[in-house]
Amino acid sequence: MPRPTKGARLGGGPSHERLLLAGLARELFQYGRITTTEAKARRLRPVAEKLITKAKKGDLHNRRLVRQTITDVSVLHTLFTEIAPRYENRPGGYTRITKIGPRRGDNAPMAVIELVEALTVAQNAVGEAEAATKRAVKEADEAKATEAPAADAAETEAAEAPAEESKDA
User: Fold this and answer.
1) Helix H or strand E encompassing 34
2) Burial, 54: exposed, middle or buried (Cβ in 10 Å; 0-12, 13-18, 19+)?
3) For residue 79, what are the contacts with CB-CB under 8 A and spacing of at least 6?
4) Which stretches are tagged as biased composition: Basic and acidic residues (predicted)?
5) In whole angstroms, how far apart are CA 146 and each of 78, 94, 141?
6) Is the full-model pTM beyond 0.70?
7) Cα–Cα distance, 85 to 74 (Å, whole number)
8) Dihedral sign from CA coordinates of 34, 39, 43, 49
9) What residues have CB less than 8 Å from 95, skipping those under 6 apart?
10) CA angle (95 as vertex; 17, 10 as ends), nearest 5
């Protein structure tokens, strides 16, 4: 006899959970961000990421596999034509969960799950340029720190020399 997965079923049986997660995934792909409970967001993340990975492959077999979960054809089309190409260079981590505090009515912990923006080539180049600038500033500060003791010693010698000349006069 098959053994069910461990953990809560989000208030229902396995078929209800599967349909609930399919609906949440559809809304996530349709709007890009949804607000739900933390438990649902955590259960949704692996489902959504697997669907995006299948959409990245883009062949007919994977389209049919995703169609079993996402039954809305317009959302399916959006997933394959807009969302999947955005993440073609990203190996995973397509979603982000942000906790937003308790819900007012029943104090349930709420979270926002959203699709992260993929790094474009321009953004990646800007990030590398900023990192190079930070490295250059750090190296310049280190160089000044090593030069500062030598400069301080030279300044103190120069300050002592006129004082000695005034004593002789």
Assistant:
1) strand 33-37
2) buried
3) 29, 51, 52, 55, 66, 70
4) 131-145
5) 57, 45, 9
6) no
7) 16
8) positive
9) 28, 44, 45, 48, 49, 113, 114, 115, 116
10) 20
* Tokens, residue 29: 């792909």
Residue type, 73: V
Q: How does DSSP assign 106-118, residue by residue?
A: T--EEEEEEEPPP
Report the chain's C-alpha Rg in angstroms. 29
Query: Which pair of structure tokens corresponds to residue 96?
Result: 């982000």
CB atoms within 10 A of CB 102: 11
- The CATH superfamily holding the domain 14-115 is Ribosomal protein L17 (3.90.1030.10)
Among residues 138, 163, 167, 29, the alpha carbon closest in space to that of 86 is found at 29
**Under 8 Å between Cβ of 118 and 87:** yes
> CA 157, CA 139: separation in Å to the nearest integer?
28
pLDDT in tens, 57-108: 999 999 999 999 999 999 999 999 999 999 999 999 999 999 999 999 999 9
